[in-house]
Design a protein that fits this description.
8 strands, 8 helices, alpha/beta, globular, 202 residues, six-stranded mixed β-sheet, disordered C terminus, 40% helix
């Protein structure tokens, strides 16, 4: 019998009660809650460790509520990478998932994904990211972009829509964006900054 995927829930502070109830209900005694509040790169370090261990895992962020049966459906999916997308934006407004999915990997983010062992074995260096992308706010873009460039594609389950419990004002979101942008600039090499400057001017 094949080993079931690990279920990983990274959190800051504590997982939302509704998230914990959904996960513990769907995967009793199988959920690993991991505190990633220790540093701006703790989330990246967790994913890098999981990738290196090369065991299939389902990643569900601490403010995401997967619908009933979602974890079982992700487990049964024949794709090496699949996602259950959130139906709302950070401000709580609704999202057109079909239009969003047409944009490719953006529909996946890292909110609720399953990564199969075969993907990690085939792309062992996917989590080798430059320092500017190791910030918790940049790691999704860094990892998903690298997977895409390596030829991997995400199967998005439009029938498994998750609920995103986060509610952030425009000011809060702007502050988060500034933080991760400043981190990326501070931790970028002079060469990469020159490339960005050149692209921006061309």
């Amino acid at each position: 019998m094949a080993e079931l995927s690990r279920v990983i829930c990274p959190f800051v502070g504590k997982p939302r009660a509704k998230t914990r109830a959904a996960l513990d209900g769907q995967a009793p005694d199988r959920v690993e809650y991991v505190d990633v509040s220790g540093s701006p790169t703790a989330y990246f370090e967790l994913i890098r460790r999981l990738w290196g261990e090369q065991r299939s895992f389902i990643l569900v962020e601490h403010d995401i509520v997967p619908p009933a049966g979602a974890l079982e459906a992700l487990e049964a999916c024949g794709h090496s990478w699949c996602s259950a997308p959130p139906a709302t934006r950070h401000d709580g407004s609704s999202r057109d998932l079909r239009a969003w999915t047409a944009r490719g990997r953006k529909a996946a983010q890292l909110t609720c994904n399953r990564f199969d062992r075969a993907l990690m074995v085939g792309l062992p260096k996917a989590c080798v990211l430059r320092p500017g992308l190791q910030h918790w706010g940049n790691v999704a873009e860094g990892l998903l972009s690298k997977l895409e460039r390596s030829g991997a594609s995400c199967h998005v389950h439009l029938d498994l829509v998750t609920k995103h419990l986060a509610r952030r004002s425009a000011a809060t979101q702007d502050a988060r964006n500034r933080e991760r942008t400043e981190w990326a600039i501070e931790h970028s090499s002079p060469e990469s900054l020159m490339r960005r400057h050149y692209v921006a001017r061309s």
